[in-house]
Amino acid sequence: MFLVVEKTAALSLSVKLFILSAEPPLSIDFMHQNKRRYTGVLVRGLFEVLLDHPEGLPIKAALQRCLRQVSNSDSTRVGEQLLRGCVAPIKAGWLLTDGNGFSISQEGKLAYQRYSDPDDFLLRAGKHSLRGWISIHFPEPYFFLGKLRDQFASEYRVAKRIGIKNLLEKAIGTPDSWQEVLPIQAARRISIPGLELASLDSFLADLKQSNLAYGAGGHAVYLPPETIQKTAFRELSKYYPCNAGLKIVRHQGGISDSVYVYKGEGESRLHLKLIHNLRHLTLVANLLYVNGVGPRLHDLVELQCNNHLWTAFMVEHVEKPVTSMDVCQNGINSIRELEQRNLVKIILPYGYEDGEFQCPDCSGNAFMTADGEFRYIDFQNFALTGYGEFLKSVALEAAEASHFGDKSILRGGRYLYQSVPGVPLPGKRNPETRMQILGELMKNAGVSVENRLVLDIGCNVGMMMAQYLKLGALWCHGWDQETVVPHTEKLLYALGCTRFSTTGGVITQSIDLKSELASHLKPHLNGCVVSYLAVRGHINWLDALKEIPWAFMIYEGHEGETAEQSLHYLEEFNKTVPFRIAAQGEYADGDSEPRTVAILIKD
Ligand SMILES: C[S@@+](CC[C@H](N)C(=O)[O-])C[C@H]1O[C@@H](n2cnc3c(N)ncnc32)[C@H](O)[C@@H]1O
């Protein structure tokens, strides 16, 4: 395992010998400017020397030529830096060594020509092996100081667990498109009245004194629902189900400043680097939840506690620690299946051998629902792998069930009615394009979905709900056919949405919309938004629209309907519900013909 480390350590001796005779100084400032780039310059210098000697050179002679211009005082460090930089090209098979001499392979020659930027040259070399990758990304003294070997071994174990392909995707440079656009839902910031939360520790001390339950972990503190009710955090029960618990991230700050694991004493640096940021952790939480091994995540939220900002997860409260070996082992097996399907990887260096995965309690991470179902509560132990493919498969499954309208032969049969962000599949409608126009209309009308409940009637696979959540909607509830909404849910979870719910079934004229809403949503009906997009022709104007105290409606007509016809339908509606048309326009998106759109404000 440490063959290369030992070999390079031995090589450093020859560098030291040589260094005594090294010559004129090179600017130290330059060396500090960009260490990796400079290492790349050194290694490419070695390649240059060796390309003039296709038969190869003894190591000492090759190094001597490279380091000719380095001063005595810098030469030890520079020589070590050069040798460290050789690990990745050696593992890539570009630089050949038999322990005594160096030569360049044909691939090495091509790589030298192709990757002329020194930094790029090293990064490309690092893509060929785990050891090479580590030597590039953790170039500090692992390879030379025996006392840090344990650290190296720890990094190596993490890298091996994750696999080179996933490392390349996750940790260096080339993010998949989903990483840029997900989660699509915007985080809300909620003010907690009358609480100056300057320090979590003193807050916990107060809870202790008042005999209120809490959990204190290394990275987060947890308040169960009964503690939420008895503190200023009861404000949150206006927005989330009453069985929700609050997990406050220990490191103070908003979502972008805050990290789940702040300082991991003795932990692998690669492991820390692989922990998803808080926003991407919502995707992990959703994935565990939909696969029955995690609690439901209700939201990732910023809590404004007077002058202090904190980040927290609102999660379904799961009460009982797991005590049954069977329940735990079944749960862990389900997690193993997710790994086998290449959806997640455990990123702890010892993987399943780590105490956090030892049954029955997994070091306090394994809990049971009232029905005895396993829930693993700490989602930072997982990295998403193959997420782009997963997203595409969820969208493909949805296409067959949810398409509304004709098949397209050109599009390959059934295809999505609404396209999915971050997924390169066609859709008849493009929610992002639609939202740009609708957003402008709302602005002109002086209204916004932010902090409002949105009722999406005929929601299809929920991609307009995703857009409303992106604009900061308080919650979205969607109605569609029974065969469609399971896909709506799967897709919304996969996109990192949490503040939503759905009802499946036939939408009839007399449907009772209110009764389908969870109790924490009912108070928000007052001032809610109704999304009535391309559905009037299918379900007419629902009776419930007369009673619900909506503030405004986002309306879209149908293909082939003229603006006059659309206005005529709105006039009909206006006879039973008083509203004014605050903004009106037309758009054509995706494969759709132009449609009339309007914002109706209730009088
Ligand atoms: C033309 S699509 C519009 C979807 C979405 N509102 C949009 O504009 O992107 C109509 C949607 O309404 C749903 N729908 C139509 N009539 C329905 C009914 N009677 N019951 C349940 N869903 C219905 C369809 O399943 C479909 O998803």
Summarize the structure.
This protein is of the alpha/beta class and 603 residues long. The chain is built from 23 helices and 23 strands.
Provide an overview of this structure.
The chain is an alpha/beta fold and 603 residues long. It folds into three domains: 3-171, no CATH class; 182-383, no CATH class; 396-602, Vaccinia Virus protein VP39 (Rossmann fold). α1 (3-19) packs antiparallel against α5 (72-91), α3 packs across α7 (118-126) and α7 packs antiparallel against α8 (130-137). The protein is globular. The chain binds S-adenosylmethionine. S-adenosylmethionine binds next to β15 and α21.
User: What characterizes the major β-sheet?
Assistant: 7 strands, mixed
Q: CATH topology of the largest domain, anyone?
A: Rossmann fold
Coarse morphology = globular
CATH architecture of the largest domain: 3-Layer(aba) Sandwich
Give the helices and strands, then pairings:
Blueprint (H helix, E strand, L loop, with lengths): L2 H17 L8 H6 L1 H17 L5 E2 H8 L5 H20 L3 E3 L3 E4 L1 H9 L3 H9 L3 H8 L11 H14 L1 H8 L5 H5 L6 E4 L8 H10 L5 E2 L3 E4 L1 H5 L14 E6 L19 H6 L3 H13 L6 E9 L2 E9 L3 E2 L3 H16 L3 E3 L19 E3 L5 E3 L5 E3 L2 H16 L13 E3 L8 E3 L1 H15 L7 E5 L5 H8 L4 E6 L4 H10 L5 E5 L24 E5 L2 H4 L4 H4 L4 E5 L6 H12 L4 E9 L7 E8 L1
Parallel strand pairs: 4-8, 15-16, 17-18, 17-20, 18-19, 20-21
Antiparallel strand pairs: 1-3, 2-3, 5-6, 6-7, 7-9, 8-9, 10-12, 11-14, 12-13, 21-23, 22-23
Helix pairs in contact: 1-4, 1-5, 3-4, 3-5, 3-7, 5-8, 7-8, 17-20
Bound molecules: S-adenosylmethionine.
